[in-house]
Structures are given as structure tokens and as C-alpha cells.
Design goal:
Layout (H helix, E strand, L loop, with lengths): L1 H11 L6 H12 L1 H4 L5 H14 L5 H13 L5 H13 L1
């Protein structure tokens, strides 16, 4: 949780991040697809903030990975917002 809180705070600052950092954050989230761990509200909030702030910098395959992630990890109010943000960038 401490890691997620730190990440959420940094992402919400809207800093200009190098692509390597964006790739690393995407790798952090997509790693959950292979583990199927339980995630909490903070995890979903952090994903939403990341997508809202940096989705313009995502590659098409990264958008697909995150959409697939949203099928595995759902939050009744946050996941639909993440999906809408990702689909806006995909189109």
C-alpha cells in the first residue's frame, strides 16, 4: 500500500515522465495479470490516475494490455472510467 500511495501521489502531480517510466508503470500494473492477486481500492485509483494523466503517451499495444487488465480486475465504479479513458485514446 505504501508503494501505491507513493506512486499515486507522483502520478497525480502530472509531471512529464520519460517513456521508460511510463513503460515501467504499465509493466507494474500488467504484472498483476499473471499473479491474480487481490487488489484494493488504492490500486484501482492509482490505475485511473495513471490512465487519466498519461494515456496520450501510451502505445496502442499498451492500451490493449491495460484493457485486458481491466477485464481481470474490476471495480464497479472505477474500471468503467479507466476503460472509457483508454478507448478515447485508442480511437
Amino acid at each position: 500500500n505504501t508503494q501505491l500511495l507513493f506512486m499515486k501521489t507522483l502520478l497525480d502531480k502530472k509531471y512529464s515522465l520519460p517513456y521508460a517510466v511510463i513503460d515501467g508503470v504499465i509493466a507494474f500494473f500488467t504484472a498483476f495479470m499473471t499473479t491474480q492477486l487481490l487488489v484494493n481500492l488504492l490500486w484501482h485509483q492509482t490505475l485511473l490516475i495513471f490512465v487519466q494523466r498519461y494515456a496520450n503517451d501510451f502505445k496502442p499495444e499498451q492500451i490493449q494490455q491495460l484493457l485486458k487488465l481491466c477485464q481481470s480486475y474490476k471495480h464497479h465504479t472505477i474500471t468503467p472510467l479507466v476503460v472509457v479513458e483508454l478507448q478515447k485514446r485508442r480511437d
